[in-house]
């Protein structure tokens, strides 16, 4: 259902990197992120934790996490599916960092979040086909 999954989280100067790593591990427990240090708009240090998951077992574990989302979150994703997917079948999701750290997965729109890009396995690789597969993932 998913070919691969890319993820990214920004750690700002006011945040604890270990806590952001813990938030990531709530969502993706087997994903060891790489670390990149960059400079923010106001010349402050920003750390980017990112990675890509391609192993079927790790993707299956992630799908189980999605399956455990609250019904209201699943309904929201289904409602917004068309806007969350690009023409190549990539589905974009964002989860609240602070809530993930506390063990709760909540879909959000703001940028200060855990960013995920899911490459939906659909043939042919068109948005319409990928939408069908994505709907199956989030159906109750």
Question: Can you walk me through this structure?
Answer:
This protein has 140 residues and is an alpha+beta fold. The protein contains 5 helices and 5 strands; from the N terminus they run βαββααβαβα. The chain has a 5-stranded antiparallel beta sheet. A hairpin with a 5-residue loop joins strand 2 and strand 3 (45-53). Helix 3 runs antiparallel to helix 5. It starts with a strand and ends with a helix. The model has no long low-confidence stretch (mean pLDDT 92).
In short:
The chain is α+β, with helices and mostly antiparallel strands and 140 residues long. It has helices at residues 17-27, 56-67, 71-84, 97-101, 127-138, and strands spanning 2-11, 34-39, 45-53, 90-96, 113-120.
Q: Count every helix, treating DSSP H or I runs of 4 or more residues as helices.
A: 5
User: CA-to-CA gap between the ends?
Assistant: 16 Å
Radius of gyration: 15 Å
- Main sheet characteristics: 5 strands, antiparallel
Poorly predicted residue ranges: none
> What is the general shape?
globular
Mean pLDDT: 92
How many beta-strand segments? 5
Give the structural class. Answer: alpha+beta
| Share in β-strands | 25-35%
In the sheet with the most strands, the strands line up as 2-3-1-5-4
- Order of H and E elements: EHEEHHEHEH
Helix share bin: 25-40%
């Amino acid at each position: 259902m998913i070919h691969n999954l890319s993820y990214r989280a920004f750690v700002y100067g006011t945040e604890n990197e270990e806590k952001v790593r813990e938030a990531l591990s709530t969502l993706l427990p087997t994903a060891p992120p790489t670390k990149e240090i960059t400079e923010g708009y106001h010349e402050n240090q920003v750390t980017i934790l990112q990675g890509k998951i391609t192993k079927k077992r790790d993707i299956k574990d992630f799908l189980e996490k999605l399956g455990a989302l609250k019904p209201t979150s699943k309904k929201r994703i289904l409602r917004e599916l068309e806007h969350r997917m690009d023409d190549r079948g990539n589905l974009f999701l964002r989860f609240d960092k602070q809530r993930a750290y506390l063990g709760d997965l909540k879909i959000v729109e703001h940028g200060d979040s855990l960013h995920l890009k899911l490459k939906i396995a659909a043939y042919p690789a068109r948005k319409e086909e990928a939408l069908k597969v994505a709907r199956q993932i989030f159906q109750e």
